[in-house]
């Protein structure tokens, strides 16, 4: 009886790590920012084998617009942008630092992306900034048609509500409003009433569409109803093109409202 030699094939299991499992990025998914205060987005490179990792390239971008990048030699390149920022790179961490966050930088639908290229593969991660509600300036004025107010440097959008004493004026035919977007994505909201001024001041308030709370408010007085000072002079005001601006009165009104809150 003859024997036929058999070729035996041994299947040895081999376990390998994909490049995505070997290297990654760590970022904060969402950061809340206060206007006027610096905020930092950090992108940290992580690796299963950190001693063997060679970072070739890291960048921060937004909406496919490159903000800054660092090459394998650690040299940072910064690109021009409307909002002032700077980038720092240390210990395989690329930081994107804003001095003043603008509305154009804010929003979950407008994220920043950190991207990595290395000898262990590539990776990317997203982080977003959310700017807190803000209104920078409130101006009040009088016209021949009635009281008016302007809210400047506003974020996010808001609705203007008018009050006369404790009564809210809900008649839309008496209320006129316009909005425009200025540099950086800030809103300017202008509103006035087709209603004569009286001895009772009007309250002009801005309500945020995000939180449904009032973020700014001011009173519009009738200059004729103002009490004179001990020297016999009424509060300061000036007239220009048929519009009476009561800026001195505005300061006192806003101060009182903030104190009550």
Automatic annotation (TrEMBL):
InterPro entries: Ig-like_dom, Ig-like_dom_sf, Ig-like_fold
Record's keyword terms, sorted: Signal
Organism, as annotated: Channa argus
Segments forming domain Ig-like: 13-130
Organism lineage: Eukaryota, Metazoa, Chordata, Craniata, Vertebrata
Signal peptide, first to last residue: 1-20
Protein name: Ig-like domain-containing protein
């Amino acid at each position: 009886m003859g024997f036929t030699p058999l070729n035996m094939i041994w299947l040895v299991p081999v376990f390998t790590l994909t490049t995505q499992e070997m290297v990654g990025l760590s970022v904060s998914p969402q950061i809340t920012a206060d206007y006027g205060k610096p905020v930092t987005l950090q992108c940290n490179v992580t690796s299963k084998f950190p001693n063997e990792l060679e970072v070739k390239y890291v960048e921060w971008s937004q909406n496919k617009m490159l903000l800054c990048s660092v090459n394998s030699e650690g040299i940072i390149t910064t690109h021009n942008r409307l909002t002032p920022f700077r980038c720092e790179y240390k210990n395989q961490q690329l930081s994107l630092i804003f001095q003043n966050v603008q509305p154009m930088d804010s929003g979950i639908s407008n994220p920043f992306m950190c991207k990595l290229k290395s000898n262990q593969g590539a990776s990317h991660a997203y982080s977003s900034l959310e700017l807190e509600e803000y209104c920078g300036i409130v101006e009040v004025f009088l016209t021949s048609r009635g009281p008016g107010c302007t809210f400047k440097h506003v974020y996010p959008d808001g609705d203007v509500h008018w009050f006369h004493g404790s009564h809210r004026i809900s008649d839309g035919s008496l209320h006129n409003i316009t909005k425009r977007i200025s540099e950086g994505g800030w809103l300017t909201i202008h509103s006035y009433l087709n209603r004569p001024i009286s001895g009772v001041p009007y309250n002009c308030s801005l309500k945020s569409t995000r939180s449904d709370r009032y973020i700014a408010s001011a009173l519009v007085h009738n200059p004729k109803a103002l009490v004179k000072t001990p020297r016999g002079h009424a509060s300061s005001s000036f007239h220009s093109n048929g519009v009476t601006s009561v800026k001195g009165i505005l300061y006192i009104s806003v101060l009182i409202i903030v104190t009550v809150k």
